[in-house]
Fold:
Amino acid sequence: MLLGNKRLFSISEVRDDFPILSKTIRNGKRLIYLDNAATTQKPQCVIDSQRHFYESENANIHRGVHALSEIATEKYERSRELVRSFINARSRREVIFTRGATEGINLVAATFGRANVQENDEIVISHLEHHSNIVPWQLLCQEKSAKLRIIPMNENGELLLDEFTKMLTKRTKLVAVTYASNALGTVTPVKEIVQIAHAHGVPVLVDAAQAMLHFRVDVQALDIDFLVFSAHKMCGPTGVGVLYGRESILNTMPPYQSGGDMIRSVTFEKTLFNELPYKFEAGTPNIAGVIGLGVAIEYLTQFDWSTIAMYEKELLTYATEQVKAINGVRIIGTAAEKVGVLSFLIENIHPHDVGTILDEEGIAVRAGHHCAQPVMEHFGIPATTRASFAFYTTKEEIDYLVRGIHKVKEVFHV
Amino acid sequence: MSEIQTLYQDLILDHNKNPRNFRKIENADRFLEGYNPLCGDRYTVYVKLNGDIVDDISFVGSGCAISKASASVMTSMLKGKTIHEAQELFTIFHKLVTGEHISNQEREKLGKLEVFSGVSAFPTRVKCASLPWHTLKGIIEDKNTVVSTE
Structure:
C-alpha cells in the first residue's frame, strides 16, 4: 500500500520481502534472526538483482565498446548516484566504492593519514570503537610515532564530550568516531563532535556501519568529512562498502591502491591518475555487489523512515523491559540514544553457553567481545550476549528470546 | 536426552560451578596461558612434575562452562599420571570431542572424560573443550608463549 509516494510500513508485508525469515533451522525450529548488527538479511529484490546481473548484464565496466559493458557501466554508476542521494553528498565524485567500512577506514589511514600525520601528532578515536576503527589508526601512529587519544565514556556507554573538547590540540590531525556502537548500540552525538572538531580545524571520519540500517545520515547537514559504511549491514550484498569523502580533501590525497581504472595514462616513466572517484577505485570492482547496494538503497528508501524509526524504538524499549525483568539478567549499554542492540549478561552463565543454548532454540545471537575488546574491558567483562534488531524484527521474536533466556537458566539450574 | 542436555550434563555443570584444582601452584615447574580469541576464554595451567609424573596440576582463569569444566576434569584426571599417559589421554579426548571413532580399549581409559561426548554435536564448542588440553600440550612441549586455539 502506498501513502503519498511512500510504501506504507507493514511488518508482515516487510517480512515477506525477506525469504530467509520464513525458513526453519535446527530440525524444524523457526528461525529467530537477532544478529542484524553482524549482517542483515537480504530482501528478494537484492537477491534477484545479483542473479539478473550475472544472467543478463555481466560485463566489465568503464572500458567496453560493446552494449553489455555500457549496460553494466550504466548500472554501476546509477548505484553511485543512488548512494550520493541517500547520504546527500554534493557530488558523485565524493562516493568511492570499497570492499566495506573496514577498507574505507584503511584507505583514509593509508592516504590522508600517511600524508598528514607526523611525529607527535595526535589522532582521536573513542572508547566505543570497533577494532576496525582502532587498529588502522594504531598502525599509523606506530609508523609515524604519533599518539592515539581515546574519548572516554561513562557507565551507560555514552561518550564524554567535555573530555573530548579538552583533548583537541594543534597536534590533532583527525577525529575518527563511530556513529552507533556495534557492541552496545549507543548512538554518538556526531553533529556536536563534528562542530567541536571543526572549531579546532580538525576533520572527522564517521564510521556509520551500524547506523545506516537504523537512520538516515546526511553528510552535508552533519558537515562530515569522511563517512564509511558496509552494504551488507543495510540489506545489501557482502564485499561492498562506501567511502564518502569531502571533495576538497579527496583531491589532496595520494592514491590508495594502484593499477587499472585509477589511471588516466601510463608510460614506463610516468602515470597520470584518473579523476575522482576513480582515482581510488583500482582494479575491477565488485560490480554486482555495487548494483545490489543500489537496489538495497531503493528498497530502504521506499518507506517513510520516521515510521520505521518509531517502530524500532518501540521494539527496543519492549526488548529492554522484557529482558531486564528476568531475574539475574543485566543489560550492558544503557545509553539514552540507542539503535536496536541489546547486549546482556546472565549471572554466572558465560555468553558463549547462552549463545549455544539459544541457537538450539533457533535463535541466532552473537556471543563474544564483538570486535570491541576495549568496550568489554571498560565494563570489566570478557564478553556479552548480543541480540540485535532490524526493522523486520517482531515483538513475537523478542518473546522467543525471553523464553530462550529462561531455557538457558533452566539448563544451568539457576 | 536432548543434544543440549547431553552437552550440559550435571557433571559438567558441577565442575563449572565448583571447579577442582582452581588455584595457582606457587612452585610450579611449568605454567602456560591458553587463550581462545573467538570467545575470550583464558586459562593458565600449572604443572609440578616429579620425574615424568604429574605430581600436581591446577588452573586459574575464566571462560565458558565447557572450557572451565574441561580444565577442572582434566586436572583431576591427570594427577599421578605420567606425561606419556597425559598425551595419550589428550589424543583420545580429541577424538571424542571431534566425533572420531574410539576403540573400546580407548573408551576404557576415558573415565570421567566421557561426559564431554556431547561436544561433538556442537562444532563451534570443540575449541572450548580442548583449550585446557592444548595448553597442557604446550606445557609438555615446553612452549613459552601463549597458546591460542586460532
In short: Chain A has 14 helices and 19 strands. Chain A has two domains: 2-40+304-411, 48-301. Chain A has a mean pLDDT of 96. Residues 326 and 406 of chain A are 8 Å apart (CA to CA).
